[in-house]
Each structure stands twice: as structure tokens, then as C-alpha cells.
Amino acid sequence: MKVTTRGSFPISYEGLRVKQKVRGGVHHQGPNEIGVLGVSGIVKMIKAVMMMNTQGKPRLAKFYDFLPVEKQQELIRGVFSVLSSRPENVSNFLEIDSLFGPDSRLVYKHYATLYFVLVFDGSENELAMLDLIQVLVETLDKCFSNVCELDIVFNYSKMHTVLDEIVFGGQVLETRSDEIMKAVEEISK
């Protein structure tokens, strides 16, 4: 039996059924979707999640590959530079190979004073990532009743808890807002 852990909870890969073959492995589905299981383990698909304000200050940034802090700051500045120079009426999808390497894509959504950004590799569906941003925002709205920039600043650990319930280790764990909220409430007890 192959077992991995998510936090302190073991996840068993027994009983999973093949959903579809994808580059680098096979996508499996069980009670919750767990992502791509490749020959050498789980293949990372989401590279980073960022929330930054319209002045470029990062309010939350999570990278799923090890990067030195200086490199993270450089990437955040680069992403903000690209986003802030884009007109409102263009696509929310970008090829971002120059910053994150080959086959990297970025999707973002601008809400009020915040940019919500996901960076991922080419094996991930861009529309699904845009929908994931929507799930994140809806869940945060439930947590904070109309989330704003100050909620992110002053509730940093809760923000990471919510994000970890949605994306962990570069893999999407849950997309149902109600289930995410139940897990966050359970952890907060």
C-alpha cells in the first residue's frame, strides 16, 4: 500500500480508479481528487499562489518549489510588473516562461484592490485554474464575510489554512467551498 501524508492525515492510494492519462503520469480520482501520480510520485502542477494589492505589495505568496526569498521577491515583482501593465479588456491568461521557466502559465483575477494569481505548468487547464481562484475567493468571503485586503493582512494563518485546504504541495485537494469551510472550522477548534 502506497501512503502519503497531508498534514498528519494519511492518504491511501489503494482503491483509486484511473480517471485519465496525462503527460507525466495518470490522473486518479478517489473520494477527493488528489492529482497526478507519476512514476516518481506526485507531479507538481501548481507552482505558486499569490495575492497582491494594486501597488504590488504581496499579501500572500506561496511557492510550491523551494526558492530562496530573493528569487521569490523577484518573481513577485515580475508578476506584478506584467499584471499592472495589462489593460482591463485583455485575457486573464498568460504564458510566463520568462519568469517561471518553460511551459509555465499564469491566470489571474482582479477583485477590488487585490490580484489573485495562480502560476502553473502546461499540463493544467487554464479555465479550471480560473475557477479555482473563484472557489478561493468565495471561500474567503464565507470566512470573513466579504473578504478585503485587511482580512488577508490580519488573518495570515487562517488564510494559509484555507489555501492549504484547497491546494497542498502544488496539487488541488478540494474545490467545494462548503467542504473547505468545514475543514477550516475543524482545524480552528
From TrEMBL:
It is a peripheral membrane protein. It holds the Pfam family Clat_adaptor_s. It is found in: Cytoplasmic vesicle membrane; Golgi apparatus. Gene3D superfamilies: 3.30.450.60. It comes from the Eukaryota. Keywords: Cytoplasmic vesicle, Golgi apparatus, Membrane, Protein transport, Transport. GO terms for biological process: Golgi to vacuole transport; intracellular protein transport. GO terms for cellular component: AP-3 adaptor complex; cytoplasmic vesicle membrane; Golgi apparatus. Residues 45-187 form the AP complex mu/sigma subunit domain. Belongs to the adaptor complexes small subunit family. PANTHER family: ADAPTOR COMPLEXES SMALL SUBUNIT FAMILY. This is (rape) hypothetical protein. It comes from Brassica napus.
